[in-house]
Each structure stands twice: as structure tokens, then as C-alpha cells.
Amino acid sequence: MLFVQKFIVRKHERGLLYKDGDFLQFLAPGTYRYFDARGRYTVERFDITKPAFEHRLTDYLLEADRAEVDRLFEVVETRSDEVALVYFNERVAAVLGPAERKLYWKGVVAIRVERFDLAQSFKLDARVAKRLVTGTDARVLSIADQAVYARVVPEGHVGLLYVDGELTDTLRSGLHAFWRYERGVNVELVDLRVKTLEVQGQEILTKDKVALRINLAATYRFVDAAKAVRAVKDPLDHLYKEIQFGLRAAVGTRTLDALLEDKTAIDREVAAHLGQRFTEIGLSVESVGVKDIILPGEMKELLGKVVEAEKAAQANVIRRREETNATRSLLNTAKVMESNAVALRLKELETLEKVTEKVGTLSVYGGLDAVLNELVRLKQ
Predict the structure, then answer these.
(1) pLDDT of residue 19
(2) pLDDT at position 367
(3) What CATH number corresponds to the domain at position 266?
(4) What's the pTM?
(5) What is the C-alpha separation between 104 and 158, in angstroms, rounded?
(6) Are residues 262 and 313 in the same domain?
(7) CB 235: neighbour CB atoms within 10 A?
(8) Range(s) of the domain holding residue 287
């Protein structure tokens, strides 16, 4: 018909009817006809399979037609200290922060709202945290990224929880999640396992003014991480500097000879220097050990000569001792042969055997006694 406007609202839709741009009423599914010669009526349709109602008139509708709004919509409003998690058919759809309100169409999609009181706790329980931050749904992960701060604390670590810059708690290994609203949240990880700190290239003068370069390693672990960060701004930097101080005290009060004779003295003194003071701030120094003691070039050469001279002297002493023992043995042998003719004859035969070892042909004249006499004369 001429001058009649026809509007159809389908079963999965709802409509908002306007006249001259002013809202008149909600339209349920059906067919609507209005006499309208000048096109004054318009209808805005909404697909209720997508429940979120994002509209410029939300606040107006809540105030002007609250009863109808409550009939058609799930109204979600949060207090200033409350967060709401909205589910569509048991899947996370939205997070409402404090002092927010939104409308969701009733009918096709089952809507459920879970509320969280920030005044009691801003930490999410494990069930909600896993649903928000460990799933594979990119849409849910995007929602959680805006509303939730999450951090996984690995095995062998603890997490230090800072809220608005203040250390408030120590977190054990596992997933931890917190609402971001109205507070700054941060978690710093601290490794509780034994670790090594290398202190390299320390130039130190001994008591007798010899410059040494020393490399040292220390193993440590955090016993109470929260106590350590509260006591010292940077625990590892503090440990490094204290190792330097202890090393200088251990080397500077000893001569080079004393250090070379007892290298473990440095380890013991540095460990004693560190021990109690770091235990009191939550750090345990497990061990300290010198890896290298590097001498200046000229000192290396000098010590090399000293060692060479010492070894030469030791070799000379050993040689003289062996010569003395050999002479003593010969003297004892001579005394035996002097008083024993048989022993003398055996010695002569032994000598003859050694002489004839390299002789191809031996002609004997005058008997064995003549040979022995000639040998004696030759040796003289």
C-alpha cells in the first residue's frame, strides 16, 4: 500500500522502532506496518545470536524503560570494587571492570555471570586463571590480556609479587593470575637453585708488593628471596663487591711465598668474610674457590729460575748420595775378597766374562791364570 511502511523482524532478531529519530519501543519478531507518507519511521534490527548490545542509547534505555530492558536483556552491572566475567554458553565472552554495565540479549544464547570482589582478593583462583590464560581460544586470550596479569613461576624458582611497587607476597611455582584493575601488579622471578658467580681478573698486591691477578668463583643460592631484596638493592652486585673486599684482605696480608705454599688460605678467609653477613640477608654462600693465580712475566721468570736451582741442588744431593753408596759397596766388596780367595776368584771370572762378551775369538796361552794376570796388568 502506498504510504505504508512495512518492517519485518525475524525470529532471531529484535528491533528498535524510531519515529523522527526518537526511540518509541522494542519490537519482537513479527511484521509491522505503519502509515508513513514522509518516512518518519525507522527500525534498527539486532541479531540476538550475538548477545552483546553495544548501543549509544544503553544508558537512556536503562533509565526510560527499565522494566522492558529487564525483560529483554541480561543486565550486568558491577560495583566500584567488583569485576564480572560473562559467559556465552559457558564460554568466556567478556570481562567487565569496576563500575561498568552492559546489556546482553536474552533468548538464544545462555548467559551466565561470575562476579569477583576485589575488596576481598584481586588474585584469580586456579580454575578461572587456567580458563582465561592457558587456553587456545585467541578471543579469550585477548580478553584476558587486557584484564588479567598472569605469570608462571617455574620449578626451582619463587615469584616476588609487587603491588603498586610494594613487595607483598612470595609465590611458589605454578600459574598465578591477578586482576589488573586499579593497581599495578608485577612478579619478579628469583632462581633458588645453586648458581656460580665468577670474579675475574682481580689485580691485587701481596704483602711483599708483588702484583697478582686472581680469578675466583663462588657458588651461592637464595634461602629467603624476599628478605634478600628487602635488605639489599641488588643482592648479586653486593655479593660481587664483598667477594672483592674479602679477596683483597686475604691476599694483601700475605706474602707471595705464603700464598703459594697454602693456596686454600684465600678460599677459607674469603668464605669466612662472606658467611654470616649473607646468611643474615637471606643468601647462602655455598663455596668459594680460587681458580687461577697469575704472576707478572718477570716474576714468572724469576720463580722459574728459583725452581730450576732448587731442582738442580736436589739432583746434585741425590747424585752425591748415590756415589757415596756405590763407593761404600765397593769397599765392602773389597774387604770380602781380601779375606776370601774364592770370592776373589769369582770376581775375576765375572770380570773376564764381561771382557769377553764382545770378543769374537779368544786364544789362551799359559792357562787361565795367565789370562787373569794379563787382565790385571792391562787394567793397571
Answers:
(1) 93
(2) 54
(3) 3.30.479.30
(4) 0.67
(5) 42
(6) no
(7) 20
(8) 195-295
Q: Whose grid coordinates read 756405590?
A: 326
Same domain assignment for residues 199 and 274: yes
Whether 330 has a pLDDT exceeding 80, the answer reads no
Among 96, 104, 101, CA closest to 69: 104
More confident site: 260 or 290: 290
| Residue 227 belongs to some domain of the structure | yes
Neighbours of 313 (CB within 10 A): 10
> Once rounded to an integer, what is the mean pLDDT over residues 223-246?
90
CB 265 within 8 A of CB 259: yes
The beta-strand segments (E) located in the chain are 4-9, 13-19, 22-27, 30-35, 41-47, 52-53, 73-77, 82-88, 91-96, 101-105, 111-117, 148-153, 157-163, 166-171, 174-179, 185-191, 195-205, 211-222, 283-294
Among the ranges given (42-56, 110-124, 298-312, 323-337), the one the predictor scored with the smallest mean pLDDT: 298-312
The stretch 115-127 carries a mean pLDDT of: 91
Nearest-angstrom CA–CA distance, 282 and 159: 15
CA 93 – CA 132 distance, rounded (Å): 10
Describe the crossing of helices 341-356 and 297-339 by its angle, rounded to 10 degrees: 130
C-alpha pair distances (Å), 14 with each of 40, 53, 65, 179: 20, 11, 16, 35
Task: Pick the closest to residue 216 from 290, 295, 293, 294 (CA basis).
Answer: 290
Cα separation, 66 vs 70, whole angstroms: 6
Calpha distance 162→184 (Å, rounded): 8
pLDDT of residue 322: 75
